[in-house]
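Review form for a predicted model. The reviewer records the input and the model, then writes brief findings.
Reviewer: anonymous (R2)
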Amino acid sequence: MMASTTTARHLFAAKNTTTRARSSSHVCAAARPTWYPGAAAPKHLDGSMPGDYGFDPLRLGTNTEVLPYYREAELTNGRWAMAAVAGILFTDLVGAGDWWTAGAKEYALDTKTLLAVEIPVMAVLEALRVKGWERTGESGAFGMHPFDPMGMASDEKRLKEIKNARLAMVAFIGFCSQAAVQGMGPIECLKKHLEDPGHNNIFTSSVGAEATVAVMALSIAPVIIEAKKALGDDDEEFRPIPW
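Model under review:
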């Protein structure tokens, strides 16, 4: 009888310990911002990078040696996207023509001359940028790494930059989609949508069915991920893509 009571106490204590550990892990997961509420970040994303919300479905960050290169590539593409989005909105606002046909127009420099100047200049600037980044861990230009002539660098500014960079990349994809589907720029599309939001939107366009399927899939995906984690082994990290 005594042995049975002792065994039961041990089992109860072990169960309570496991429950507390699980609760603690859930509290930690909830305390850290993630790409959707309650998501558990993969082990290789520890939250040390600005803008790390634990989103890595392709598991690109598992190689810690190349992870900084991916982050730098994301920032670089995001900065170009921010410049592109600002330029597209400006040309649309001033009526300078369709932005997607700009490359086919004639300018003071013909295409061959432009390429002869642009390729070597950009190659030199990019080489200097990469060398500076490898030396300091910060991207920059004109010998300044990071490029911060106004002394505004801070963790808050870095977080805002990566957020705006990601938003600009998504916005640029949207501008391209609008041009391909509607044959209009973003300002013109916005005006058309505001005239009749119920009938002038992505779901009533020629790609409405595809957009509906995409939204449904993105809405259901977090539920599937959470169900898989809840029903699976707690010690096993869920991998939507198995590599």
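Findings: Residues 1-30 have pLDDT under 50 and may be disordered.
Further findings: The CA atoms of residues 29 and 38 lie 6 Å apart.
Recommendation: see findings above.
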